[in-house]
Specification:
Blueprint: H1 16-22, H2 25-40
Helix pairs in contact: 1-2
């Protein structure tokens, strides 16, 4: 991985258990939903602010 000096100063791989402690809540929900989709072999789902929307747009 090559870091852009003006964008990132470091990177780190985290376990799913560490995500909520290291990111903002809506980003943690998005990352954990992606991890769950990958590990269960299901298709990714649509999220708004890291949560499933309650209604379907007409």
């Amino acid at each position: 991985m090559t870091l852009q000096a003006d964008e990132l100063k470091s990177f780190e791989f985290l376990s799913p258990d560490e995500i909520t402690d290291r990111t903002i809540p809506r980003l943690a929900r998005r990352i954990l939903a992606a991890v769950e989709a990958r590990s269960s072999g299901t298709a990714p789902i649509y999220l708004e602010h890291g949560q499933q929307p309650n209604s379907v747009a007409a």
